[in-house]
Specification:
The chain is α/β, with parallel strands linked by helices and 433 residues long. The chain has one domain (3-432): Glycosidases (TIM Barrel). 40% of the residues lie in helices and 15% in strands. It has 14 helices and 13 strands. β10, α13 and β11 form a beta-alpha-beta unit. α8 runs antiparallel to α9. It starts with a strand and ends with a helix. 52% of the residues are buried. The structure holds beta-D-fucopyranose. Beta-D-fucopyranose binds next to loops.
């Protein structure tokens, strides 16, 4: 069965940050620091999904999706990141999972979508190798409670973005700006992934995946400095996270780091544990030019000549075909079936319900995915980001990605035009097959 779903993440929708023993996450800390997020927005309330989840499951049921990708908040399960589980945290996810199953919707949990328990950040966060093993313990706790009902588990969401925005550039929590010094935070996430794959399978998970953010890289020109900058970007954004997982080795990183001493013997064998799916999040290609300042080996040159989303991201549906066929060419037999675990766009705050550009975006990208499938890429699912307008990290509530509008004053949910469009689209899939 092809999975058609919507996607969300815990910190972006749940709110209820102090309910039922939840511990503090790095996003609580970061969003409360002055100047970190636009207009000082925080996820304190978000979509109040922690209390309104029944309504949200009903919205998905009305939409006709057969899968839902959500994330589990580690600080709800282990408030300090280690030790005995907080039963109320697990109870919340169990209720959600059971309601989804009842509605005929496959739950697809992601164990880490950036909301690290603050107590683990106080020990260095992902710069500390110990966090990898601690993550595997957390994975085992969650799976031993829920793997009897959930076949497919995703370990991490976008370790690249968490490393780059959180540790290299300081735009996301935990707000560190280590530039290429952030590489250990990438490696330790990958190691955590590999250790969690073992732990999940031991606890009964039948299928395991990782979700990587992937982007086709377009050199700004065919001149050597731009070509080598584009190569560097492709290595650091795409290959750094796909090669170890799929091929059991890192690309050549010698130009970007003086040492790989954080990679220990045997790590790559752990990281390359066989996977059932590669989760791919696609938003847009990236155009790269030679660096203009010290620090990073490339510059984002921007893409012009395409429509843009409210975020200013270029809308390039064919980039999804390019990405998928590129993965197939690069990894061949080592590429497991692919799930598009996120794809979507933000639309203008003011054009609330009449979100024609989102319909065009989804139509175009689904067509591009199908083109890639026709060209031989094995894609097994597509998840729209997002079900609801939600807390878009550093942008706060200013970027609305939802199929469903959320009034953040009243928490009223109102399906947008794209929701109705997707419902008809999914209805048509049932009669087609
Ligand atoms: C992805 C994130 C997701 C959301 C979208 C717009 O990078 O995984 O949480 O913010 O971007």
């Amino acid at each position: 069965m092809f999975l058609w779903g919507t996607a969300t993440a815990a910190y972006q929708i749940e709110g209820a940050v102090a309910a039922d023993g939840r511990g503090v996450s790095i996003w609580d800390t970061f969003s409360h620091e002055p100047g970190r997020t636009r207009d000082g927005h925080t996820g304190d309330l978000a979509c109040d999904h922690y209390h309104r989840w029944r309504e949200d499951v009903a919205l998905m049921s009305g939409l006709g999706v057969n899968a839902y990708r959500f994330s589990i908040a580690w600080p709800r399960v282990q408030p300090l990141g280690t030790g005995t589980a907080n039963p109320k945290g697990l109870d919340f996810y169990e209720r959600l999972v059971d309601a989804l199953l009842e509605a005929g919707i496959q739950p697809v949990p992601t164990l880490f979508h950036w909301d690290l328990p603050q107590a683990l950040q106080d020990r260095g966060g992902w710069m500390n190798r110990e966090i990898s093993e601690i993550f595997a313990d957390y994975a085992a706790i969650v799976a031993s409670r829920l793997a009897d009902r959930i076949p497919l588990w995703i370990t991490l969401n976008e370790p690249f973005v968490h490393m780059a925005y959180g540790y290299a550039m300081g735009i996301h929590a935990p707000g560190q700006a280590l530039l290429t010094g952030a590489l250990p935070a990438g490696h330790h996430q990958l190691l955590a992934h590999g250790m969690a794959v073992r732990a999940l399978r031991a606890a009964g998970a039948r299928q395991v995946a990782i979700t990587n953010n992937c982007t086709p890289v377009w050199p700004a020109s065919q001149q050597e400095p731009d070509l080598s900058a584009a190569h560097a970007y492709d290595v650091l954004h795409n290959r750094l996270f796909n090669d170890p997982v799929l091929l059991g080795k890192y690309p050549d990183l010698s130009a970007y780091t003086p040492t790989l001493d954080f990679v220990h013997d045997g790590d790559l064998d752990v990281i390359a544990a066989p996977l059932d799916f590669l989760g791919v999040n696609y938003y847009n290609p990236t155009r790269i030019a030679a660096p203009t300042s010290e620090g990073l080996p490339f510059t984002d040159a921007g893409i012009t000549g395409y429509p843009t989303t409210a975020f200013g991201w270029p809308v390039v549906p064919d980039g999804l075909r390019e990405l998928l066929t590129g993965l197939e060419t690069r990894y061949g037999a080592a590429l497991p079936p692919v799930l598009i675990t996120e794809n979507g766009c933000s639309t203008d705050d003011t054009a609330t319900l009449d979100d024609g550009p989102r319909i065009a975006f989804l139509e175009g990208h689904i067509a591009a995915m199908r083109q890639a499938m026709a060209e031989g890429v094995d894609v097994r699912g597509y998840f729209v980001w997002s079900l609801l307008d939600n807390f878009e990290w550093a942008e706060g509530y200013h970027q609305r990605f939802g199929l469903v509008h959320v009034d953040f004053e009243t928490q009223r949910r109102t399906p947008k035009a794209s929701y109705a469009w997707l419902r008809s689209f999914l209805e048509a899939q049932k009669t087609d097959t």
